[in-house]
Amino acid sequence: MSFDKITVPSEGEKITVENGELRVPDNPILCFIEGDGIGPDIMTASKRIWDAAVEKAYNKSRKIAWMEVYSGEKAASVYDGNYMPEETFDALREYLIGIKGPLTTPIGGGFRSLNVTLRQVLDLYSCVRPVRWYKGVPSPLKRPDEVDVVIYRENTEDVYAGIEYEAGSPENERLARFLREDLGANFFEGAGIGIKPISEFGTKRHVRAAIKYAIQHDRKSVTLVHKGNIQKFTEGAFMKWGYEVAAAEFPDETISWDDVAANHGGKVPSGKILIQDVIADIIFQKMILRPSEFDVLATPNLNGDYLSDAVAAEVGGVGIAPGANIGDAVALFEATHGTAPKYSNLDKVNPGSLLFSGVMMLEHIGWQEAADLITSAYERTLDQKIVTYDFARQMDGAVEVRTSEFATAVIRNMDA
Ligand code: NAP
After folding, report:
1. Which residues have CB under 6 Å of ligand 1?
2. What's the pLDDT at 137?
3. Annotated active-site residue in 26, 281, 328, 383
């Protein structure tokens, strides 16, 4: 495929899928979207770190071929006002893997959000957020080291489906009449109405992905987080379908809590991944009081949105939390914070969120050694109290550095 504004790097090769598995060459083409606001600062710093780690981990035998694709303000300047060019979708569909900085959603540009558009158009149905503590990162918890979870948030359904009708609009009045007269529903006059669709198809493909992740990464449990005690046919169904997909498709690898209690004296047999569930409000308490009880958390869209940020705050906040949006083949890794416009081009902010999203990307393509090199060098840098402003203001004796200087320190620490 040829592109109008995208330059395909001549020295790189395409990642492909064979028999459901990624086939990754030694010089894979990976897409990147630089991002707006602080995007250029954190992308430049992170790319230096990813490249250095790959070079060191594989003794120069592997190298990422970066291919810039465009979205947001940079796209608007390259594509004459178009914030979301079609060939960006084409490139991601063809090259499968990409990483993006934060994007400003243009006001009045016809988009609810560029991020949501990317997820929906590419059908990236699971939002994946690993949350763990790194030694030295300031935390409000007494035992932040007990936090090590991966939140799988469903990305396409629930109240985010965009089926909402404003109070007083003709659509709202039609729907309200139907609900009252045909279905006997009872609610206040003048209510805005939103619809919360949660399907068996959407739930099962998402929970299936969470279970596969747990198997591949030797995780102990998958917890289905839901508010099914109240919302029985949406959140309750999410739980039911989640248990069903585990029992039907992963009978050898997983075991349900009911089975453990009834047949194994409350002890999970070795080698099995526990499938359990927890009510959404309780998980917020437990993730503060007893976080070590949780591992992979599979959630519907809205609960997962809240939970991801709340749990990230336990171990350092949005400046460091990484994320990815993953579909059947395409995966787009991303910084989870916004564009923080007041810090644009100041070389000041923490690149941690984007950096660790890239670590997830390296793990996703099977380059674990490079990923591990970054994690250990990062921890060493924090140990030396070399940090950006956001951590510096919470740490005694910190050495505050710029984004680029932080990257240099991490790269230096790869040799330690
Ligand atoms: P934000 O950009 O995430 O910034 C809020 C605050 O979070 C910043 O002022 C800063 O706090 C802290 N922060 C964010 N990134 C940081 C980093 N890398 N290092 C250290 N601290 C960091 O949220 P916002 O101001 O609400 O949103 C700004 C724009 O971003 C909006 O246009 C929004 O639509 C967009 N947005 C995009 C995404 C995305 O692309 N995924 C996500 C959310 C928002 P202090 O000032 O306290 O230091």
Report:
1. 38, 102-105, 115, 318-319, 334, 337-341, 349-350, 353, 390
2. 83
3. 281
* Mutation choice for ligand 1 from 339, 348, 400, 406, CB with most ligand atoms inside 8 A: 339
Residue 317, pLDDT score: 74
Three-state DSSP class for residue 403: helix
The pLDDT score that the predictor gives to residue 396 is 86
Residues with pLDDT less than 70, the chain: 108-111, 318
d(CA 247, CA 238): 14
Run of H or E including 213: helix 200-216
Which of 160, 213, 243, 343 is catalytic? The answer is 160
CA–centroid distance, 388 to ligand 1, in Å, is: 15
CA-closest candidate to residue 197, choices 169, 162, 224: 162
Strand partners, 278: 225
Do 213 and 128 form a contact (C-beta atoms < 8 A)?
Answer: yes
Q: How far is the CA of 13 from the centre of ligand 1 (A)?
A: 34
Concerning whether 160 is annotated as a catalytic residue, the answer is yes
List the Cα angle 361/208/229 in 5-degree steps. 115
Catalytic residue among 100, 227, 272, 348: 227
Cβ–Cβ under 8 Å, residues 10 and 371: no
What burial letters (b/e) apply to 350-384, b meaning 16+ CB within 10 Å? bbbbbbbbbbbbbbbbebeebbebbeebbbbbbee
Planar angle of CA 32, 358, 151, nearest 5 degrees: 115
Closest to 131 (Cα-Cα) out of 145, 150, 146, 154: 150
Joined together, the tokens standing for residue 260 give 């453990």
Q: Which long-range contacts (CB under 8 A, 24 or more apart) does 82-89 make?
A: 83/109, 83/111, 83/114, 84/111, 84/114, 84/117, 84/118, 85/5, 87/3, 87/4, 87/5, 87/6, 88/6, 88/33, 89/118, 89/121, 89/122
- The whole-angstrom separation of Cα 202 and Cα 204 is 6
